[in-house]
Amino acid sequence: MKIIVCLKQVPETNNVKIDPVTHNLQRNGISGVINSFDVNAIEAALELKDRYGAEVVALTMGPPDYEKTLRLAMAMGANEGVLLSSRGFAGADTLATATVLAAAVNKIGGADLILFGRQAVDADTGQVGPLVAEKLDLPQYTYVSKLNLSSDGQIDAVRMLDGGTVRVNGDLPAVATVRSELNEPRYATPRNIKLSFKKDIVVYDEKDLDLDDSEIGQAGSPTIVTKVYTPTATPKVTETLEGSAKEAAQNLLTKLSEKSIL
Amino acid sequence: MFDNTFTPEQQMLHQMVKDFTAKEVAPFDMAIDQKGDFTDGLFQKLIDNGFLGLTLPEEYGGAAFDPIATATTINDLAYGNASVGVTLEGHYKTLDQLMKYGNENIQKEYLDSANHRIFAFSNTEPSGGSNPTGISSTAVKEGNKWIINGDKVMITNGGLAEVYIILVKSGENEFSCFLIDKDMPGFSFGKREDFIGLRGTPVGEVVMNNIEVSEDHLIGKRGQGLEIADQAHDDARILMGAVLTGIMEHALKIASDYAKQRKALDTPLTDLQVIQEKIANIAISKELTKLVYQQAAIRKQNGQPYMEEAAMAKTFGSRSAVKAGDDALQVLAGYGYSREYPIEHLIRDARALEIAEGTVEKMRTAIAKAEFEK
Amino acid sequence: MSEIWIYVENHFNRVDPSSLQLITKAKEIANGRQVTAVILEDHDQDFENTVKQYGPNQILLVKNDNLKNASDETITNVLVDLAQEQKPDTILFGATVTGRSLAPRIQGRLKTGLTADCLDLRFDDDLLVATKPSYGDNIMCEITCPKNKPQMATVRPNTFEAVVDGSSEPKINEVEVTVDVDPRVTVSDEQGSVSNTRSIGTAKRIIALGRGAQSESIIKKANELAGKIGAIVAVSRPLTDLPEFSHEQQIGQSGNTVAPDLIINLGISGAVQYVVGIQNAKTVVSVNTDPKAPIFDVSQYKYVGDAEAFLDGLIENV
């Protein structure tokens, strides 16, 4: 059994600011950390490693500094790390990112299961998992809160929807995106941290993946960001409910129901 | 700040320990103090996640992390709960001596087990205070065996630890260190102290009644005991500086969070100079203590003397942390004085470190002597 | 005429509110474009009856029993076939779990752009300008998809209001299509969330009582309201001394941290230890007789007055 876990590195804090002159995001000095949902994806893979001896490959796309996210995956227990790094990949939207990841999955020789965190905490799209599934023509199991693989190549999962759950099962190979409810991730132990830095990391660029320049980076991205701004802070407004207690209560119920809160 | 010069390994460890502390230690801080012991499962989690083997060589299943990473780990854990930091401090300082002075046979026999068993160092006796030359425990050589007798008290992790390095009299004006194991015939635990702070860390007594050990259990050379005990103190004091930094970070976080969300009449507390001064003072003390323990750790790693810096970290840090707790308490005023907030136990915790591993008075004497010798 | 499609999502035989909200919003920004609600359902279902009340210009209806418990893959097959044939200008989804799963799959097959979790939409000439938050809502981005069609977006639920509009009868365009069921995946019936009524930590709705609301009659009424709206009753620290309550129901520093969608604080002044316990609540309503009670500083709705009378008003009208 082989499992590929796709990872993203995100800024350590969401408290990013916009340069008032250039209007670019000021990300200097903010160090990168692994996307928290991706840690659940690693744990899901490692549980399958513990159970079936699955080989776990950690995969990420980004600048050389993203190596540390792969090292963390290895310190938790992944067998190897693959970094997709090239200037050509820069500026990719979700479609162009998925193109590179899907090509890398093929380059690695495919897998029985390709895992993602449900979404990245910086851009919050959750799109790359389904896109990779589509590009590889694999079934998708998104927002998974329970996951079982059997040794005869079946996947059985529970997806957690907004108001309920649904069980989905079928054949491997497949793509799954996991929720934090799925598991409690293990820690990278000090010893495994040390050992993970002794392993080699494989690096691929677009040539290794046989990708055309038009498919990757900005050129391969249908969407463009036309404006970035800081939302004018709407101070937490307190609305006073007027009138008698009864009127105020009625008024509240109307407002809550308009906002589908009640 | 030295934090920016961490290697990628140190950085990843730092992050892991912070995560571990936030999830596994900090939520139990109050409960540990109230229970007067580690909460259920916490100690096992420290073992399962490899904390006990942090400094052990890789060939013994350890992570072989350096003094800076070790002190940072203690700092990060102590931010969640000071007792967790102190328990590991006692373990690491003991292993330092076993790794430095123990012979190959005893290392082979014991180091591997230190991944899951706590080790402790002991020199204090009921009569002697922390003056090692006043001790009356003895080791007497009979053939190729040593017979050990005596009573050791105030041992950090006493009762929890399974292996002890003890300082005994091995002859006229001759002191030596031996390694003993709780499973040896003649070994028994005495009473546990009822201290006002650091209540998660057991501090207890070990009674030795004709314990028989081989020559391999002599740590270092015969007569080298006082040197080893001094060394253990120095190693401990670096880590105490780290514990104290953690306590101050904790006090700062509570006081700062509180100030940020409260008003006095209509003025936010953050705009009041009396509050700003206290917050600034805590921050300054925290940062200076950190710099000096890091400086001591760097010197240790580079093979330079570090007695003075280690003593400074403990001396400056302990008084500063008590003061930081007191300042934080004043920021929270009535709430600060309440047992519902952890500040009162931070003060009790910090207070212990003005005494343990050499009183601050003794530390100042040692620092002054070192200065006069320059 | 260029069309805006809204994919109508359903769960438990109900149209998801996010789809209805999108119909209203799409009509507001349509500027001559036709708003089409796309409904995929089996023969036992009639979501068109709900949808038409919100006044889309057209309902594109596919009724096929293979659509019962259809997988993302199967729905993708149907929607992609329809989109390739009818070439809508824009397709919108609610940014629900379902919408966020389907939309990128369809995007991938149509090789176009998709903007996620939008908080606002508008058209600049032909371009859909989608406003999406990033970095935990700290930054807003305007995103367009200038060269590819359709333009796609998922929109955060409850961002817009759904408004009933009976001004015109939508045209219902029922189409026959082959439903290619993806044989690799089997989807079982959806199960509703079992709300854990015992734990206030996971409760979605909470009625919290404090020192100013501790009479027997208020406690009784709070429980009555809780039963009606599926809430759970919690307390601030002073009330843990009452026989009815324990530490289990206590919110605050030394109790539980809660993160409900709605919390109604009755007779709670808002001591700092309490406030830290509710800082993750989404909508905070507070009732207190003291107009200066600090709890009002962290509330979206406040009523200065008697908690019991307010409670009566809620019970009567809910």
Question: Mind sketching the topology for me?
Answer:
The complex is a heterotrimer of chains A (262), B (374) and C (318).
Chain A lengths: L1 E6 L1 E3 L5 E2 L6 E2 L5 E3 L1 H17 L2 E7 L5 H10 L3 E5 L9 H15 L4 E5 L10 H8 L4 E11 L3 E7 L3 E8 L2 E5 L11 H7 L4 E4 L19 E6 L9 E2 L4 H14 L4
Parallel strand pairs in A: 1-6, 1-8, 6-7, 7-13, 8-12, 9-12
Antiparallel strand pairs in A: 2-5, 3-4, 9-10, 10-11
Helix pairs in contact in A: 2-5, 3-4
Chain B lengths: L7 H18 L3 H7 L6 H7 L18 H14 L1 H20 L2 H7 L8 E4 L15 E5 L2 E12 L6 E9 L2 E8 L5 E6 L10 E12 L3 E2 L5 H37 L1 E2 L2 E2 L4 H29 L5 H26 L10 H10 L7 H13 L2
Parallel strand pairs in B: 1-4
Antiparallel strand pairs in B: 2-3, 3-7, 4-5, 5-8, 6-7, 9-10
Helix pairs in contact in B: 1-4, 4-5, 4-7, 4-8, 5-7, 7-8, 7-9, 7-10, 8-9, 9-10, 9-11
Chain C lengths: L2 E5 L2 E2 L2 E2 L1 H13 L4 E8 L5 H5 L6 E6 L8 H15 L3 E5 L2 H14 L3 E5 L1 E5 L2 E8 L4 E6 L6 E5 L15 E4 L10 E8 L12 E5 L6 H14 L2 E4 L26 E5 L5 H6 L5 E6 L12 E4 L2 H11 L1
Helix pairs in contact in C: 3-4, 5-7
InterPro entries (chain A): ETF_a/b_N, ETF_b, ETF_beta_N, Rossmann-like_a/b/a_fold
GO molecular function, one term (chain A): electron transfer activity
Protein name (chain A): Electron transfer flavoprotein small subunit
Architecture overview:
The complex is a heterotrimer of chains A (262), B (374) and C (318). Chain A is of the alpha/beta class. Chain A has a single domain, classed as Rossmann fold (3-Layer(aba) Sandwich). In chain A, 27% of the residues lie in helices and 29% in strands. In chain A, strands 11-10-9-12-8-1-6-7-13 form a nine-stranded mixed beta sheet, sandwiched between helices. Chain A has a two-stranded antiparallel sheet with strand order 2-5. Chain A has a two-stranded antiparallel sheet with strand order 3-4. In chain A, strand 9 and strand 10 form a beta hairpin. The radius of gyration of chain A is 21 Å and the shape is globular. The mean pLDDT of chain A is 92. Chain B has three domains: 114 residues, Orthogonal Bundle (Butyryl-Coa Dehydrogenase, subunit A, domain 1); 104 residues, Butyryl-CoA Dehydrogenase, subunit A, domain 2; 146 residues, Butyryl-CoA Dehydrogenase, subunit A, domain 3 (Up-down Bundle), CATH 1.20.140. Chain B has a four-stranded mixed beta sheet, with helices on one face. In chain B, strands 2-3-7-6 form a four-stranded antiparallel beta sheet, covered by helices on one side. In chain B, helix 9 packs antiparallel against helix 10. The longest helix of chain B is centred in the middle third of the chain and has 37 residues. Chain B is elongated. Chain B starts with 7 loop residues before the first helix and ends with a helix. Chain C is built from seven helices and 18 strands. Chain C starts with a strand and ends with a helix. The model of chain C has no long low-confidence stretch (mean pLDDT 91). Chains A and C meet through helix 3, helix 4, strand 9, strand 11 and strand 14 of A and helix 3, helix 4, strand 7, strand 9 and strand 10 of C. Strand 15 of chain A pairs parallel with strand 18 of chain C.
